[in-house]
Specification:
3-stranded antiparallel β-sheet; two-stranded antiparallel ribbon
Length: 262
């Protein structure tokens, strides 16, 4: 993993010796996403605060101790609203909060993989320190002084915020990395890609473009399942000399060479 000029690009070397390039989110886009999230939190907090205050006031008249419990619940609620909000959405939306989604940025690992739930929680608990001594002073100082504009939570779990467009349009940046430029040896011949449906070819393309982000076990299993589902339509070498992924790469190359994809 390396950061390019001005730390605006993240280049990751995958196990396949493929270089993938991400555009690092700037401080401005991160601040805008934060402002939108804080606005959402403030609105939710205001609505719950007004409604809850009336409820506690009414209950306290009848049961004074219940009012104390209501206040304690308020404290827990607002803690979770602030710190749990970010972790919750980054877990269910794979690195995005409503603010990040609106701005078009996402948190990923330095390796390009998604954060685990534990990493998302740890990253966002560090906001307690980032806030000190006042509105994100430490967090902003860290973002200005570190490569990749990382705040303390990013440094702790090894994460970075990138632009969503660089994920959706992700392309290899190394000439040797494209599976579409590596045909089979001439002795193998056609595998029968023309027999596959558009949906089956799209499934192969999707797997090949995303495989570097998968755990090895999941990646191996997915490749085997895809090949198993399309095997009856193919003409494979009798000696089983090709790996599963090599077959899928060759099918993508064969389909592209035939002009089915541009």
């Amino acid at each position: 993993m390396s950061l390019g000029p001005a730390a605006d690009k993240l280049t990751i070397e995958t196990p396949e010796q493929t270089a993938l390039e991400f555009q690092v989110a700037g401080i401005g886009s991160r601040f805008l996403a934060l402002a939108l999230d804080v606005l959402i939190q403030a609105l939710v907090g205001l609505i719950v605060g007004i409604g809850g205050s009336f409820a506690i006031a009414g209950i306290s008249v009848v049961a004074p101790k219940a009012g104390m419990w209501g206040f304690a619940i308020f404290v827990v609620f607002y803690f979770l609203l602030y710190f749990g909000y970010y972790a919750f959405f980054e877990i269910i939306w794979i690195g995005q909060t409503p603010g990040k989604r609106k701005v078009g940025i996402r948190v990923i690992k330095d390796s390009g993989r998604p954060l685990t739930p534990a990493e998302s929680i740890g990253r966002n608990l560090m906001r307690i320190v980032d806030w000190l001594p006042f509105f994100y002073a430490i967090g902003m100082a860290s973002a200005f002084l570190t490569k990749g504009h990382k705040r303390l939570g990013d440094l702790v779990v090894g994460s970075i915020v990138v632009r969503e467009t660089s994920l959706s349009d992700l392309k290899p940046v190394s000439p040797m990395s494209s599976y579409a430029t590596s045909p089979l040896p001439s002795t193998v011949g056609s595998l029968g890609a023309h027999h596959l449906s558009a949906e089956e070819n799209a499934l192969i393309e999707s797997f090949l473009s995303r495989r570097s982000a998968l755990d090895l076990g999941v990646r191996f299993h997915m490749a085997e399942e895809i090949l198993r589902s399309i095997r009856p339509k193919l003409t494979l070498p009798a000696d089983n000399s090709l790996s599963t992924e090599k077959i899928l790469e060759a099918l993508a190359y064969e389909r592209r060479s035939a002009g089915a994809y541009t």
